[in-house]
Amino acid sequence: MIYVEMDGRCGNQLFHYAVARYVQLATGDKQLCINFNKIFDKKLPKEGWVDYLKDFNTVQYNYYTKPGTVLKNESNFIQKLVIGLKAVQIKFTSRRSRQERAMLAQSGQKLLNSVGVYWVREGVEKIWPSKRKKSIISGVCESNFIYEIQKILQDEIVPKYPVDDKNKDLINLIDNSNSVCISVRRGDFFTDTNQKKYGVCSPEYYIRAKKFFDDKQIDNTMFFCFSDDIEWCKEKLNFKGANIVFVSQDMPVYETLRLMAHCKNFVLSNSTFSWWGQFLSKNNDKVVVSPSRWNNEGYDSDLISDDWVLIDA
Length: 313
What we know:
Structural class: alpha/beta
Low-confidence stretches: none
Number of domains: 2
Distance between the termini: 43 Å
Radius of gyration: 20 Å
Number of strands: 11
Mean pLDDT: 94
Number of helices: 13
């Protein structure tokens, strides 16, 4: 059995699922049990705190039904001992910078993994799956090692439902043009609480990123701007012309992700949901433009790939 400590909204949930599948495929374990307590306990479904996996063609999983966390409830004595050792290290480095903490995250992973614990925190670049009666997955689970199973995930993280009738013309336009997805994350990234950490992408970043593609002068280029604040995009980004389509995210999340993933090239925001759009794209020649940093805390995120085009945000 593989127990998964689920957290976050769609983009984050997909990372947890991806790490679970990575372990499942490597170990041959047949069962996933996912704990959505952190999400369901918020009782905020209208704000996106729901199970998003249910809308995709994922492998079968069961819901964890006990209160609390699987890290505490399901770990055996040996696992608790090893988790405790790692927790001590984390505690004693808690005052260090985010980058320094990330650089220490890989330490002890082989030992954790050998007893069936996958505590995938920021900075964990590799794991070593081992078959155990109980395996436990926890942490943010954001790591590029899931590229090793990218093709499998591309076939699983597909909506269960057909394209909405109102989006059929849009998806045809995306499929039959040199489409560029511009993903603009506003919302909670720019609240008073979060802007200092996550308010990275300025209007100038998106304008420079679009110009990068404009300068290539590729025939039949169409830009598709996806955002949780389309009116802000229309007002601040100065995107004009017949080759720009503004796409409101006022639709099911799975439908937005499907449309984004159909695009051939990408301009990302510092968002996990934005990241998944490019990951699920099956265009092998895609060009991905990204902000040169994904936070304002000096942490070099593992999610930024070496082959991306980086632009100062």
